[in-house]
Here is the input.
Amino acid sequence: MAHQPDSNVIETVVQLLCESGLSQMAEAVRIMLNEAMKIERSQTIGAGPYERSDRRQGYANGFKAKTVETRLGPLTLQVPQTRGVEFYPSALERGVRSERALKLAVAEMYVQGVSTRRVTQVMEQLCGLEVSSTQVSRAAKLLDEELTAWRQRPIAEIPYLVLDARYEKVRHGGSVVSCAVLIAVGIAPDGHRVLLGVSVSLSEAEVHWREFLGSLPDRGLHGVKLIVSDDHAGLKAAREARFAGVPWQRCQFHLQQNAGHYVPRISMRGEVAADLRAIFDAPDRAEADRRLELAVRKYDKTAPKHWRPGSRPTCRRG
Here is the structure.
């Protein structure tokens, strides 16, 4: 039969609390948790200690010490180990999930540029524990290390490269400024999208794009057959310098947005956007040209500023 609660353990806990009161509550909880984890291990492997059982799925494999932070203070537990079956105590798993949630909260505050003192206050409210500014700084340092490792990870073959930027408020030099977040997304040979890299710069000037794009081949990027981006001057110059000869296509989303700026009436924008989308979704070049001609004639009177034959956007090299 599976491992049952040890009556000696219960008696020990009761005696401990009777003799010392709440001052020994942490030790009582430690003893009970250790016993609960041993019971859960027996249930997982289907047999108690030294028990022969047809329901056995694995074997006990000793214990591993682990210190966890609780509202009662740090508790050093003996975590049961197994062999032949995967096992982790559910009580500690809940703690792991809480730790992950806490780490995400710290990461969010860190990204938002919240001060160390404020992060300390929030962590204390979340954890119910006293957290020093040194611990917060250490957590931020670990986040920095994880981010650096992610940004420097190797890149393999990427046939299609998509480049874009967005602007975010960033704490810089003691003040909050609007900075460009440069983004590179790749389409792998298997068709899956991969976020290749992110870089925060003061602007989208050529020097920033050039440095960012230069870091991608340094990490192993190769096999690029097509680059998709908007037509920003800084990005264009950097792209032509770093990926000379690689065909380029203007991003359809940005192209459609730019075209919408020439629509004279707001009421027309939905219809114009649908016609442009129909051109983009054409099955081949000939059908796209036909739909473009129809759109040109359709809006020749109501929205005369449009592409003329000979000035259509095409896929260009470098």
Q: What stands out?
A: The beta strands are 59-70, 73-83, 160-172, 175-187, 193-201, 226-229, 247-250, 316-317.
